[in-house]
Design a protein that fits this description.
single chain, mainly alpha, Arc Repressor Mutant, subunit A, three-stranded antiparallel β-sheet, 8 helices, about 10% strand, globular, MarR/SlyA-like
Length: about 170
């Protein structure tokens, strides 16, 4: 087990990660807040879903998620359709415009990271990714590895997402 001083230093380092996040936030398009970018990223990664599931995956309150959803919907980046299983609920999904914004955000973030880490080796970047993933696992991040297991995919898929997946299967 690591010494207390190592955990204290880790806590300081994790707190300082806010500076990295702020730097990446400055790379976002001017009309895309970090919370909105997170909504788009989750919908891009996991497909259409209800607001409640989105809030769970973002690990934020429903009211905060609703504000971010309103922001991206107002810009035409997502659409809200009735859920065929429950007409009281809405399914959220990216529009073509939203997919374009996701690609733009991804490119800007990759460029910012590549610039800041230009003297890191591929192995070092891989180690960082691996260790951060392990840290998320140990804290029970509900998104970690979600798309990698059939059981998890079935648990989060909507009927429309399943149909889309079946249609694109070889």
């Amino acid at each position: 087990m690591a010494a207390q001083s190592q955990y204290e230093e880790l806590a300081r380092q994790l707190s300082a990660i806010g500076a990295v996040k702020r730097h990446l936030g400055r790379a976002l398009p001017h009309d895309c807040q970090p919370g909105s970018a997170a909504v788009l990223a989750v919908l891009d990664r996991y497909g259409e879903m209800r607001l409640s599931r989105l809030a769970e995956l973002l690990a934020v309150d429903m009211s905060v998620t609703s504000r971010h959803v309103a922001h991206v919907a107002g810009r035409g980046w997502i659409e809200r359709q009735p859920d065929p299983l429950d007409r009281r609920s809405r399914l959220l999904r990216l529009t073509r415009s939203g997919e374009e914004v996701v690609r733009e955000i991804s490119g800007r973030c990759v460029d910012a990271l590549a610039g800041a880490l230009r003297d890191w080796s591929d192995e070092e970047v891989g180690q960082l990714n691996s260790l951060l993933g392990r840290l998320r696992d140990d804290f029970g991040d509900c998104r970690r590895g979600l798309a990698d297991t059939p059981e998890a995919t079935e648990a989060t898929e909507t009927p429309a997402a399943a149909t889309r997946a079946e249609a694109s299967a070889p």
